[in-house]
UniProtKB/TrEMBL annotation:
One of its GO terms (cellular component) is nucleus. It comes from the Eukaryota. This is SET domain-containing protein. Residues 37-158 form the SET domain. One of its GO terms (biological process) is regulation of DNA damage response, signal transduction by p53 class mediator. GO terms for molecular function: histone H4K20 methyltransferase activity. PANTHER family: N-LYSINE METHYLTRANSFERASE KMT5A (PTHR46167). Signal peptide: none annotated. It comes from Megalurothrips usitatus.
Amino acid sequence: MVVAIVVGSFCSVETAPEVGRCFRITVPSSGLSGWWCAPQVREYGAKGRGVAATRAFPRGAPLLEYAGELTSRREGLRRELAMGPEDGCFLFFFRLGGRQYCIDATAESGRLGRLVNHSRRRANARPRAVLLADGVPRLFLFADRDIARGEEIVFDYGDARPAAVEENPWLKH
Ligand SMILES: C[S@@+](CC[C@H](N)C(=O)[O-])C[C@H]1O[C@@H](n2cnc3c(N)ncnc32)[C@H](O)[C@@H]1O
């Protein structure tokens, strides 16, 4: 199973390097800018670790980067085939500017985007692929509605492949 499949779109986002658990991000089209304190890791029972909002976020606010190793889709698919259940599912496939990519966040990195759990029906975040000034595609999670402090941040992994759903029935909800 892969974490997510998303069709990206171009938007202009500039970001400075993360400082501790906060990072500066600007989304010119929405006028949102500021230091965004990254959310917090919590345990969510059968889901394992997840990410909670440490403050309220308005709809459209950038939340987290889904950070990992950027590869081609082809390489991502090769890795998926080579992986076993012990590797978890941290491959995020996406498209940007007519090209297809994969971010492999399998390695424990301390970055929080890779720990965001799935919800199809109650998603409050949405992934978006963006091209930063360095021309490297990146993935960010944005608030899809207003998010209250303490809420778990979840997004729809978008993996509806029958074999994946059969193996991971929680993908249905
Ligand atoms: C990208 S990881 C998310 C972080 C993970 N919970 C952890 O502790 O490392 C994806 C994995 O989280 C679990 N997961 C995510 N969303 C879930 C859900 N709605 N219900 C049950 N398990 C979920 C599954 O084990 C899935 O393979």
